[in-house]
Amino acid sequence: MSLIKGETGDWEMVIGLEVHAQVISNAKLFSGASTAFGGEPNTQVSLVDAAFPGMLPVINRHCVEQAVKSGLGINAEINLVSVFDRKNYFYADLPAGYQISQYTRPIVGKGKLVIDLPDGSAREIGITRLHLEQDAGKSLHDQHPSQTYVDLNRAGVALMEIVSEPDLRSAEEAGAYLKKLRSILRYLGTCDGNMEEGSLRCDCNVSVRKPGGALGTRCEIKNVNSIRFVMQAIEHEARRQVAVIEEGGAIKQETRLFDSGRGVTRPMRSKEEAHDYRYFPDPDLLPLELDRTWVEEVRRGLPELPDAKKARFVAQYKLSPYEAGVLADEQASADYFETAAKGRDAKLACNWVMGDLFGALNKLGLDIVRSPVKAGQLGGLIDLIADNTISGRIAKDVFQEMLASGKSAAAIVEEKGLRQVTDRGAIEQAIDAILAKEPEKIAEYRAGKDKLLGYFVGQVMKATGGKANPGLVNQLLKKKLAG
Amino acid sequence: MSALTELGLAEARDGLRAKTFSARELAEAHIAAVEAARPLNAFLCETPEKARAMAAESDARLARGAARPLEGLPLAIKDLFCTENVPTTAGSRILEGFTPPYESTVTAHLWRDGAVMLGKANLDEFAMGSANVTSAFGPVENPWRRRGDNRPLVPGGSSGGSAAAVAARAALGATGTDTGGSIRQPASFCGIVGLKPTYGRCSRWGTVAFASSLDQAGPMTRSVKDAAIMLQSMAGYDPKDSTSAAVPVPDFEAALSGDIRGLKIGIPREYRIDGMPQEIEAVWQRGIDWLKDAGAVPVEVSLKLTKYALPAYYIIAPAEASSNLARYDGVRFGLRVPGESLDEMYEGTRAEGFGAEVRRRILIGTYVLSAGYYDAYYLKAQRVRALIARDFDEAFKSCDVLLTPTAPSAAFAIGEKSDDPIAMYLNDVFTVGVSLAGLPAISVPAGLSGDGLPLGLQLIGRAFDEETVLRAGTAIERAADFTAEPSFIAGRA
Amino acid sequence: MALDKAAVARIASLARIRMTEAEQVRIAGELAPILSWIEQLNEVDTSGVEPMASVVQMKLPMRDDKVDDGNIRDKLLANAPQEARGFFAVPKVVE
């Protein structure tokens, strides 16, 4: 339980999130225009998207399938009959003066997902519904002193609106919810979850109450575009509300924006009129009817989802829940790990992926799919460590070389002659050479300065160019030093 | 030349193929007739050059024996159909100057089949009206006048321009749209045939939307056969319209035998309205007798909720319209009245761009959908609609086609009834129920009123059974032998 | 159903149609009889009746996920009252 300590006592945050997830599809929800990001203004717009007189919508089958997949991924009921309603309001980036959405009968009903908290605990969060709707175009207010420029490229792109129950109780939980939802949608291939590009947007509903008390008035913070900002905005807003109430004021139900620069929420400046959207079933469309057998087919075709994969990683590879969680967060990393770990020491593979690989990818600013070192290649490196061809220390150097050159570990080890020296005779020779030059230190060691062993090991390693098997060096040195 | 404009569409088709005259001659005669008919204000936009070019193409095809179904036939197009590169106004200031970069599916079919475009016909603004007096570009005059009376009369609406053009022989046929009676009622007022097909029979793509669940395109012609020929081309499944019916188009011309022996004709008792003018009652009875004489069997049926069709329609249609017309906002096409802010621009544009009747209906529609009223009005009306459709289904268990009057009166004078919206709405009393149920119906001229004005009879069929409607319509047409002509015929002195 | 000037003002605002006060009063007068006329629907017993979804008796048709439209900017802008650099231009909105 994460409480805010106010002047008059503790306060509980009640948070619900409304996520708008752009559906991955080639064409828009009701037209054949492209959904590609970043096109020249108004080049990915059909007459239907621009709401010219006489234009009519026709629904994209793939978008329907994506919504069903997403619903199944959040353990939700799929409504075999759903209806498209018109949500009527006027705005420059809404050409028809209405948005085709779903109000009373959405395609997906109640669902749930499990959030993973940093302390290792998990909580189930309820989801109220998921429905399909059209995205609006873009209004640019900063291109001209007295005009707003409208680009309809995005108008009509399919969105899934996913509404959570107000079950979240902290900014941290909200962040975890978004992370998990994003992960699931990416696994399913139904949304790329890119908040910076706007393909995943989050509206936060925040209210506060005394623990066990009645629900407070909520405010909606619209269009927050990163998980970090969502957490900040919620934290700020909850505290703001506590302060207002404790000062004797009342929370005004309103829509607010998060100013990420200043870290505060502020009310939207537009006319605060009560929105009467006058929802009614779109007469240009018939009710959407899904076939039960088809839904089951879709269900059978779903990939193993993050939670199931994480559980399997713990059971099958004996990873810790934390490690499993990190690897399973993205399908690509999970697949990478499994390929690298196949027939090998899973723990070792896990360490290499989570440590060296992720570290390198971070530094290079690359996605795991664009990793210069492929999963099989990392496996090859692990094999060389496992059979003692190279030491762990040398392996790190080899790995850096693999990143730079794209060559296999074996090739690099051969080329650079990095094979570990395990020949006892050769090592003894090296040891003898070092010891011959250090009579004083030998005496000090024999007198009790045990720490000097490390010094001798270091010297032997240096002399052998790092290639001597450290274990053997240790063992043989000790013997020789013992006399 | 004027004789060419007095041919029926089918006759002209046959004459062209027999090379009795050329498509060019036919087009020129009609171009002259359109000009001569200007006093009626039936056309908003004349397209003589286009007509000539299309006629030339038709002559080339006729010469090489490659004639298409409507080759060379000059038609008027209601200005609600978007025609590529030809201004389309929907009878409204808000679309003044709008030139669509696309062609509606229905008109595309007509051009595909070789028809020739004479121009865009006047209409009630956004198809809202029953007298064609709400057009921003002036009312249309009915080519018919009352005997001994010089006052101009309304042609009916909303497809008033189409009806007047066809009645005045300025076009062989015209396209109309029917949402609550807008093809049938003007057809009745102008003494021509008007057919509203089953909802979904013709595509709505590219046709300016008024009430999406009710709008249907249909032909307006001087004979039932002509209507069958035009419908053949207009109809057909369109994947760009989600409400377009995926059913094959039958051979409508083959349904014109007029053989109705054994056909059961339903006579709905509730259509006998209190205070119905005697002459309407009389023409209805005559129609029943004609059909009986031709071997059909009249059967009394009940459409219990008839009187509620009008109020249900006047909730549903404005509601859908209020949403469909939101796109007319000055942003992407049409009129823009500048404003200091976006909302000011919207409000000024729509206040100036929309006429009084359209504004009224948008407000009603907005109101009945608004919070707190949706259940009581809109949902209630849709429930009543379901019951009305059920009424028709029930009736069709004991009959094959229904016969009713088309309108509760003959044409009235321009200016009459325009102060009283409800009186105007009552013009649609016999036609709206059919629209709510989505059924096909035809109006066939059946007789004259005491003043010498045309009176039409309506035949209503089962869904997608235009064939029976056409067959019975032919029988009425034969028996009525309606040869009366309007006082104004284009080109005649 | 009583429809006063304030209600008309609210609806006109929702519909983005400017109305002077005098017009609001006039419209309220015009709409009142129409609204009470449509109230007669309350005489119909509709208990247990589903609102009509559509007269069309078929399933919602679906299209393939193919890009076969768009790239018609010139056509889209041809009728625009005001455009700039490929955008539709409108009076500036302050958010």
Folded structure, characterized:
The complex is a heterotrimer of chains A (483), B (493) and C (95). With 483 residues, chain A is of the alpha+beta class. Helices cover 40% and strands 19% of the residues of chain A. Chain A has three domains: 4-297, no CATH class; 304-416, no CATH class; 424-482, Arc Repressor Mutant, subunit A, CATH 1.10.10.410. Chain A has helices at residues 61-73, 171-188, 227-246, 292-300, 306-317, 321-328, 331-341, 346-364, 375-386, 392-405, 409-416, 424-436, 439-447, 452-463, 470-482; strands spanning 3-6, 9-22, 59-60, 81-82, 85-88, 98-101, 111-116, 122-134, 138-140, 147-151, 158-164, 200-209, 219-224, 255-259, 264-267, 280-281, 288-289. In chain A, strand 7 and strand 8 (122-134) form a beta hairpin. In chain A, helix 12 packs across helix 14, helix 12 packs across helix 15 (470-482) and helix 14 (452-463) crosses helix 15 (470-482). The two termini of chain B are 13 Å apart. In chain B, strands 1-3-2-4-6-5-11-12-9-7-8 form an eleven-stranded mixed beta sheet, with helices on both faces. Chain C is α+β, with helices and mostly antiparallel strands. Chain C has a domain at 5-42. Chain C has helices at 5-14, 21-38, 73-77, and strands at residues 62-63, 83-84, 87-91. Chain C has a two-stranded antiparallel sheet. The mean pLDDT of chain C is 92. Chains A and C meet through strand 3, helix 1, strand 10 and strand 17 of A and strand 1, helix 3 and strand 3 of C. Strand 10 (147-151) of chain A pairs antiparallel with strand 3 (87-91) of chain C, so a sheet runs across the interface.
Top CATH class of chain B? Alpha Beta
CATH superfamily of chain B: Amidase signature (AS) domain
If you compute it from the alpha carbons, what radius of gyration of chain C comes out, rounded to the nearest whole angstrom? 22 Å
What is the typical, i.e. mean, pLDDT of chain B? 96
Strand order, main sheet of chain B: write it out.
1-3-2-4-6-5-11-12-9-7-8
Shape of chain B: globular
Strand line-up in the sheet with most strands of chain C: 2-3
- Report the average pLDDT across residues of chain C: 92
How many DSSP helices of chain C? Answer: 3
Number of strands of chain C: 3
What low-confidence regions of chain C span 5 or more consecutive residues with pLDDT below 50? none
Structural class category of chain C: alpha+beta
**How many beta-strand segments of chain B?**
12
Content of β-strand of chain C: 5-15%
Q: C-alpha Rg of chain B, in Å? A: 21 Å
Percent helix range of chain B:
25-40%
Describe the largest sheet of chain B. 11 strands, mixed
